[in-house]
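ARCHIVE RECORD
Type: protein–small molecule complex
Small molecule: 2-acetamido-2-deoxy-beta-D-glucopyranose
Source of inputs: curated submission
Record status: active
Notes field left blank by submitter.
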Amino acid sequence: MVFSWRGGPGSRRLLLSLLLLAVWKVGSGQVHYSVSEEAKHGTFVGRIAQDLGLELAELVPRLFRVASKGRGDLLEVNLQNGILFVNSRIDREELCGRSPECSFHLEVIVDRPLQVFHVEVEVKDVNDNPPVFSVSEQKLSIPESRLLDSRFPLEGASDADVGENAMLTYRLSPNEFFVLDVINKKDKGKFPVLVLRKLLDREENPQLQLLLTATDGGKPELMGSVSLLILVLDANDNAPIFDRSLYEVKMYENSANQTLVIWLNASDADEGLNKEMMYSFSSLVSPSIRRKFLMNERTGEIRVNDAIDFEDSNTYEIHVDVTDKGIPPMVGHCTVLVEILDENDNSPEVAVTSLTLPVREDAQVGTVIALISVSDRDSGTNGQVTCSLTPHVPFKLVSTFKNYYSLLLDSALDRESVANYEVEVIARDGGSPSLSATASVSVEVADVNDNAPAFAQPEYMVFVKENNPPGCHIFTVSARDADAQENARVSYSLVERRVGERALSSYVSVHAESGKVYALQPLDHEELEPLQFQVSARDAGVPPLGSNVTLQVFVLDENDNAPALLPPGAGGGGGAVSELVARSVGAGHVVAKVRAVDADSGYNAWLSYELLPAAGGVRSPFRVGLYTGEISTTRALDEADLPRQRLLVLVKDHGEPALTATATVLLSLVESGQVPKASSRASKGTTDPEVTLVDVNVYLIVAICAVSSLLVLTLLLYTALRCSAPPTEGACVPGKPRLVCSSAMESWSYSQQRRQKVCSGEGPPKTDLMAFSPSLPPCSVLDAKVEEQSIGGDQSRKERITEENYDDFRTRKTLQ
Ligand SMILES: *[C@@H]1O[C@H](CO)[C@@H](O)[C@H](O)[C@H]1NC(C)=O
Ligand SMILES: *[C@@H]1O[C@H](CO)[C@@H](O)[C@H](O)[C@H]1NC(C)=O
Ligand SMILES: *[C@@H]1O[C@H](CO)[C@@H](O)[C@H](O)[C@H]1NC(C)=O
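STRUCTURE (tokenized, with ligand):
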């Protein structure tokens, strides 16, 4: 039997050492081998035959064999060379578990002779087992609030090997929070402990992943590791915070209810309940702000809950707290500054603060009438107010100071034109759209006595019939005063003067209030010159103002004088006219003349003559000239005519009623021889008066002609003016009749200063001839000549008579 041996020089050295060891064992009496576990198949264990003293040759014959209780196949002997070698894998841990010594027993049996040898094989440990942890990951939950040096035991690793191979050392992966402490247990082995070296912060590192490594003492060493998952548990160590401590919000006033002001978002680094937050107004917040704003506790929204008025308050400072639900709770703070923006929601206000009324119409330009203040509760341009006035008033606004104005008089006032002004002050702000307000000031203009009473005309003509009853009202003067009240209360008085020997006031009086002018006694046309006087009108102002008006009173003639017969001779005493008439005179011969005068004037003095029918119905051969008073024959006289003829001539004026006088003419018919003397006497005696009488009548006729032509002229002139002249103020006033007074021969213009007298020789002075024009509107051009009169409609009648009579007269004259 041969031991097979294969191997290099290294194996030889190992073999040598094993041999020496085996020898040593034999020496001690029993063969002893040792083999490492996990040795490869064929690994030399020992020269068992040699060591037992057996010959190699006898091994086979003697049936050499190795017996092992249950483990016979682990080792085997090469019968060729007697070497014990490893047959199959030897696991020390399987054979002996964790016992430190491990060996097994081999019985070697040979026959012929039967011999039994005992061989002890020691199995030596090899580091074939790494340290092992029971789990691949260990979880630890550690509150972040744990203090430093807190210890957390860990489960250690186990190693199936023994001795050095099972001597474990631990290492922890590098980290800042934990270090490893290893505790040696009494019953061998160690266990690791984590020690907290730095405070944990869940918020920073919610979990840590560490690696724990165990290393055994074998050569080569083996390692095992376990991952440590450290969950950091939350503690309420973080207060909720806002990302800013001050929020500024701008919003317009009058925002709708529930408008969002701001949505606050606080954050809390903690988790769970520690992170749940509640928003609230801080206790510093005033009740008024709590009323205006509503805080949603859960979401942190602040909304409008009441009317927001810029004018109430333009900023709100809201302190907000946020509290988490941890125990104990933690609180965060912030401030919300709400700035309210103005809207143009307030109209300006205008106030008239003081007023000096009424304003005298003579007030100086620049007089302050009222002080006006404006205001607007809005701010900025919304509150900038400009003031203006209604146009076309004599006032202006002057700004005295911001928002204060004076209402000044801008131009002269005249109460008589405008007595009251309604002034509107309009205040307008600068917003858009702008708002405005108005205030009205009623400015009353006080009267000043600046207007004198004024008569419509500077001069009036008054026509009064003579023989008026005493105290009769002849005219009313009336002056207007444009002022008011006392300043317009006019009183009238007479401007006293002397009229001849008497005072004016003995003739006329003026009622102070009514302005009625009374004639105090009967006025006599024949006595009074046209009475001229002035009436003064004064108002009751202080000082009073006055003006005068001139009254021309014409006393109109009344037919109060009957015609008076003039005697045939120069200075005769009236009565009968007796003439001698030659029987030989032919028809139409003037035989006598009746002369009469009338103290009245005009128509009242215009005489006509007519023959009264003789008694007994005898046809008289005589007639009388209607206006001449000449008695002439109608036919040749004959013998049949009575020698003495008595004629009654009625002399009649044209007054109304007419007054008459009767003249008796005695005619004696004589033979032709007797006549001349008488007739020459008669003619001599009657020539001058007759001429005068004829003259008077010629005057009358000329006058009447002239009146008619004047009428035509006036009409023409009037028409011409009317057509050419532009209508000027007061130029034409329709209506009242005009009186034209004429001087008999010279001019038709009337002169109030001069008076023409027409004398009829023996008769009393004749006053002016008066004629009346028909109702024509007067023209200003004619004012100098034509004066207004108000004596009613009489004149038109007289005018008619004038014309009729004139025509009548002319025809008769022509006939003669
Ligand atoms: C809070 O959050 C809401 C919703 O994300 C957002 O609309 C709002 O603007 C935030 N508030 C602030 C003050 O950032
Ligand atoms: C605003 O709305 C709230 C809730 O709807 C209500 O209680 C409050 O009276 C309202 N405020 C006004 C001023 O209308
Ligand atoms: C009116 O007449 C009187 C007397 O002639 C005179 O004294 C007075 O001044 C006159 N008044 C006016 C306003 O002309």
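CURATOR ANNOTATION: The chain is about 15% helix and 35% strand.
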